[in-house]
C-alpha cells in the first residue's frame, strides 16, 4: 500500500514538472549563447558575462529563426544558430507578462522595427548609432522602439573592466589610444539579467 502511494505521488510530481520539450518557443523570445568568435572572450571578461551573443526568435512558415546582428544583420535558422555556439549551449528568455504584451500587433511592430536594420553591417566599434549594429543593441532597440520596453540598463564603455589585459588588447586594436569611454552601450549581460525577463529554456 505504501509502495503504491509512493509511486502515485511520484507520478503526480513528474506530471507537474514542466520539461523543456513541452515549452513552445514564441515570437519575441530572446536567445543567448557563448560565441566562438575572436572577440567573445573579451566581451565576456569586460562585462563579467557567460554569454556573448544573442538574438530574437521569430516563427516563419512553421520554422524558428534567430534575428541576429552578425555580418550582416540577418535571419538564421535556429538549428544553424545553435550549432555555432560553444558546446551548442543556449538559454531562451521571455517577457514575464508576454501573453499581455507580445500580441500579434506588437510582434508586427517588432518585425517592422527589425527590418530597418536588416542587411546592416555588424558594429565592431559598439557605437550607439543605427549605421551599424551589434547583437545586444539590435534586441534592445527593437524592444525599446517597438514596445517602449527597456530590457536591460544602458551603460558606458568606461563602466566595464577595460583594464583587463585581454580587454585592453581588443580595445587597443579597435580604437588605438582614443577609447570612447562615454559611448552608450548595452551588453548581453544586462539584457540577460533584466528583471523583466524569465528563463523558459536552458540547454
Describe this structure in words.
By secondary structure, the protein is of the alpha+beta class. The chain has a single domain (26-202), classed as endopeptidase fold (from Nostoc punctiforme), CATH 3.90.1720. Helix content is 37%, strand content 19%. The protein has eight helices and eight strands. A six-stranded antiparallel beta sheet has the order 4-3-2-1-5-8. A two-stranded antiparallel sheet has the order 6-7. A hairpin with a 2-residue loop joins strand 2 (53-60) and strand 3 (63-69). The longest helix is centred in the N-terminal third of the chain and has 15 residues, at 2-16. The relative contact order is 0.18.
Per the CATH scheme, the topology name is endopeptidase fold (from Nostoc punctiforme)
Please identify the top-level CATH class: Alpha Beta
Number of alpha- plus pi-helical segments: 8
Mean pLDDT: 88
Order of helices and strands: HEHEEEHEHHHEHEHE
Shape summary: globular
| Radius of gyration, taken over Cα atoms and rounded to an integer in Å | 19 Å
Please identify which CATH superfamily we are dealing with.
endopeptidase domain like (from Nostoc punctiforme)
User: Quaternary state, please?
Assistant: single chain
Amino acid at each position: 500500500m505504501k509502495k503504491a502511494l509512493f509511486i502515485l505521488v511520484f507520478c503526480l510530481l513528474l506530471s507537474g514538472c514542466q520539461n523543456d520539450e513541452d515549452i513552445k518557443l514564441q515570437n519575441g523570445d530572446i536567445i543567448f549563447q557563448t560565441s566562438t568568435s575572436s572577440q567573445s572572450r573579451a566581451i565576456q571578461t569586460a562585462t563579467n558575462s557567460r554569454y556573448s551573443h544573442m538574438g530574437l526568435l521569430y516563427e516563419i512558415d512553421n520554422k524558428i529563426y534567430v534575428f541576429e546582428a552578425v555580418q550582416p544583420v540577418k535571419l538564421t535558422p535556429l538549428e544553424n544558430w545553435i550549432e555555432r555556439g560553444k558546446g551548442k549551449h543556449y538559454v531562451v528568455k521571455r517577457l514575464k507578462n508576454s501573453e499581455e504584451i507580445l500580441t500579434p500587433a506588437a510582434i508586427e511592430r517588432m518585425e517592422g522595427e527589425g527590418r530597418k536594420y536588416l542587411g546592416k553591417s555588424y558594429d565592431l566599434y559598439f557605437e550607439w548609432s543605427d549605421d551599424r549594429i551589434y547583437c545586444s543593441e539590435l534586441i534592445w532597440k527593437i524592444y525599446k522602439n517597438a514596445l517602449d520596453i527597456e530590457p536591460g540598463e544602458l551603460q558606458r564603455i568606461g563602466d566595464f573592466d577595460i583594464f583587463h589585459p585581454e580587454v585592453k588588447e581588443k580595445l587597443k586594436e579597435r580604437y588605438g589610444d582614443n577609447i570612447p569611454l562615454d559611448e552608450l552601450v548595452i551588453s548581453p549581460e544586462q539584457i540577460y539579467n533584466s528583471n523583466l525577463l524569465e528563463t523558459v529554456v536552458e540547454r
